[in-house]
Amino acid sequence: MSLTKRIVLTLLLSIIISIIITSFVSNYMINRKFETYLIEEQNTKLKKVKDIVENLYKTKGPYLNEEDISKLSSLEGVYIEIKNDTGKTVCNSHNNHMDHHRRMMRNMRKPRIIEGNYIEKEYPLYDNNNKIGTLIIGYMDKSYLTESAIIFKETLSKSFLMSTFITTLIGFIISIVLSKELSYPIINITDTANKMRKGDLSSRSKINTNTKEIKDLSNSINYLGETLQKQDNFRKKFTSDISHELRTPLTTLQTHIEALIDGIWEIDEKNLLILHEEVDHLTKLVNELRDISKLEELELNLNKSYFNISNELEKITESFKPIFKKSGYEIITKIEPNVTILADKDKFKQIIYNLISNSYKYLDKDGKIILNLRNDKDCVHIEFKDNGIGIHKEDLPNIFNRFYRSNNHINKKNDGSGLGLTITKSLVEAHGGKITVESILGKGTTFNIILPVK
């Protein structure tokens, strides 16, 4: 079942059930209260008849005019019979037998009055607290349901039915509008997701809605599309770069080996050194491809232990100083001594190696890297500051993305895969830390790492 139909049917069913329950309860309560009111009115009428008859009987006694009783009986729609204190009938509202009176009262009833049972009530008549007789009032037990009362109850029932129909119709219209408002954006988002699944990563969800959850879902789908598209572009670019990089050394190796086979080249140290350099280049490219595999399954199992981070940083920088000196560069350290942290020593070394190597690639003449270590109670701050070529402002948000390599200001030494900083960031975050970068084009770059002590 489509979302639209499900929403319409659910809302409609909820409305109908609610209306039925409300109508039933309201109709029952109103009818009950109304009948109670009518019964109270009937009892008030009977008491009124009793008071009138009692006054007449006290005044006239045995000489009570039967015509007055008949008029009162006809006016109030009841049978009246008066007995003296010995039980003898003094007068009644009709001289025929009781059954005839019942038939008369039934004939007097209007056609719309509900059929009921004839009942009689006895009321003692008093004169100064002395019983002087008995009053018998006969009436139909449903006589309080007059035509007006029946019309009122029927009108009430009809109004509930009409309200049910109108409310159901309005609810149906509202449910259709609401279902379309909810389903159309979701259908649009689903279509966008399906297009992405089929390879169209440029597809974007375009919806106009005020529903926060749907808007958030649309934004998430669009963000996912943008991320996938960037990753796809990065992969394509990386594949193209790797293909080009592999082709060059392989072609060189093939040419040189053929020259050796044909005797054009002699097998001497110089020619073997050229082949060795090309093999090293290929090995480096293969290692970068291996890094990609590592990155894909970078659910790190950290082997943490306490170690002196100050000593480790000193050792790492010492190992890099010959390389820096050979290129005319300088590496300066400002390390706070005896700083200890709980971390994976090998992964920590990889973080430092990656950052120093990355900075080295982008140094120019008189290049310099300053490494600072500062302990701050619960965490340590490590800063790498260089005076290299810097990073373009547009590239800064992307430098930690996998496969990303800037097209601007590429240094000739930058032949990497674009994975070093991505792996570094993942390693830092695996330790519960944070890495940020600041850079000014042409002046240099600063990386800041914050790692928890424990």
How would you describe this protein?
With 454 residues, the protein is an alpha+beta fold. The strands form three sheets. Strands 6-8-9-11-10 form a five-stranded mixed sheet, covered by helices on one side. A four-stranded antiparallel sheet has the order 2-1-4-3. A two-stranded antiparallel sheet has the order 5-7. Helix 1 runs antiparallel to helix 4, helix 4 packs parallel to helix 5 and helix 8 runs antiparallel to helix 9. The radius of gyration is 51 Å and the shape is rod-shaped. The two termini are 54 Å apart. The relative contact order is 0.07. About 6% of the residues have low confidence. One of its GO terms (cellular component) is plasma membrane. GO terms for molecular function: phosphoprotein phosphatase activity; phosphorelay sensor kinase activity. Pfam families: HAMP (PF00672), HATPase_c (PF02518), HisKA (PF00512).
